Amino acid sequence: MTETANPGTFDVTLRENRVFPPSRSFAEKSAYSLSDLQRLRELGARDIEGYWAEAARDLTWFQKWNRILEWQPPFSKWFVGGRINASVNCLDRHLATRPNQAALIWEGEPGECSTFTYAELHRQVENLTAGLRQLGLKAGDRVAIYMPMVPEATVAMLACARGGFTHTVVFGGFSSESLKDRINDAEAKVVITADFGWRKGGRVQLLEQVAAAASFCATLTHAVVLQREHAGQLTPQVRRSFQTRRDLSVLSSLGESKVKKVDWHELMASIDPREVSRLGRPEELDSEHPLFILYTSGTTGKPKGIVHSTGGYLVGALRSTKLVFDLKPTDVYWCTADIGWVTGHSYVVYGPLAVGATVFMYEGAPTTPENDRFWAMIERHRVSILYTAPTAIRAFMRLGDQFPQSRDLSSLRLLGTVGEPINPGAWTWYHDQIGGGRCPIVDTFWQTETGSIVISPIPAETALKPGSATRPLPGYDVEVVDRAGKLVPVGQGGYLVIRKPWPSMARTIHGDPERFKKTYFSDFENGVYFTGDGARKDADGYIWCLGRVDDVLNVAGHRLGTMEVESALVSHPKVAEAAVVGRADDIKGQGIVAFVTLKKEFSVADRDLKSVQDELRNHVVKEIGAIARPDEIRLTDGLPKTRSGKIMRRLLRELATHGKVQGDVTTLEDLNVIAALQQSSDDEG
Ligand code: WTA
Which residue in 16, 51, 407, 622 has the most C-beta neighbors within 10 A? Predict the structure, then answer.
């Protein structure tokens, strides 16, 4: 397998026999009747293109497509010749039907609340589009977004979409190094950021990170900076004071760099209000116009810039949102993902706003100021749909039942999970403690590359089995196969593949179409897409995801390449070699264990072991961000390698998990190394 996929052995021991019948209350109120759903399933199975063309008609197009699909594996074009704008579909088209409905309800971590109606959000977005155009941006240019979870983050994404500026959102927890790499790879001209954001009662200094990166970003001309204290305000004080200033003469340079710094509200106010609609008009974009690039981890040290289209992506986001979440104007829908991840793109912004739903958004940590913050917000805003990650559920479980129990969660009617397999224990807790036993749970399987949900229950129709994402949605040809691409027998583990193209699939890796082909389409023939995951199918056709089979970790629902962490470690002057593996973790799913060999001249005496470990940990945080901080660093004299020089990760994984190595080690070059590693784990244990 490419990108060092490791077939390993599949753990198919997980057995869960409970079956929860589909929700009657959903079936009664669903926008799709059971016979509609049956028809969609049949159409999806018989005529995939026809199915998706029907879904595409739910969107507003400036010009209809003349061909549904052009497929030259691995490259696809959907709705060829169609012209469309994502922000029009998320905003303008709702102005006639629901201008005063809340599009966004927001809470900042310190407790501010604000609401943007569809009319207000629309106005903000066109104003910012006009402002960005004034900075010289044109359709096709790239913009980086590095923001806290404030309404302006959504405004920024939609304003980019409106002008045809391809956005690349960088998670606010990434370091200046990661930000710099992404800005440079995308050749972004503008970065939109905030001076800081709130997290666990502290300030995350975003602007400082931008300033540190700016001097090394040759393509960057401007940084648009939101002052966090004005987040969520339509007409803050500052706006009034700058109202008379119609030029941006106040631009100053950012740090040492030549990048010009411009205040968000000044930029907004620099547009004559009578000209906002004209200057902020939507671009009529080709269906294949790149809406965004989102970087995600693979099995090399360099993250991949996954490119998504406009038309096909929106079709996938909208259709899945409708089927899986069944959103109504009466719902308050909350997806807890950060906009820095794909879930934040498809299910905080594009999907729900394309439906015309009311989205709740929260800035900060789940336990600030108290352990019941999530549940207090659900009570306060009468949230009816909650979509979150198994990691969060397990963390809440550990905190104790008293926190959700002390709050009124009766507004909830549907729960969802994403990002990693959910263990039946966490599923049951979520179902009983949060859902009060009455809310169906949609366990949704998908990826940055798929753009939208691929496998998930449809709550009105699908019986649930805790731990299974159940069946593929209509329009997806998903299978579990062996290395030769043959279907594996029921119950056996294999590789999870998608055999036919779908509209919201990634179009390429930015600047590296070869890597796109090699990573996803070279393991199997005939344009079959390989997810990188293992799975098994049961007798009912339900799919049970078994986790990644390549060197990609899933830490607290975040994808992280082992090579990425290794590259960060070896960039430290003391490090000669490093190998990183995952170890099962009760809360995070996987934890990070690094085996590190120091350069000879730095061999550590035992007494400063801890300080070296801390130094290396901090170095990884500086290079990548806090999400990559290793849980454990083991210093060793050498790493176990095969005769051909490959690091034997299987052995390291065993060592990291059990502290001991079993199995075949005959290809090892130097058995002493294993003995020494085992010794060091015995010492620690
Ligand atoms: C894993 C997140 C089991 C899987 C949307 C996949 C899951 C990777 C599930 C993608 C699920 C996601 N059950 N595993 N419901 N959802 N995964 O790109 O390993 O951040 O390949 O996209 O998360 O992670 P990504």
Answer: 51
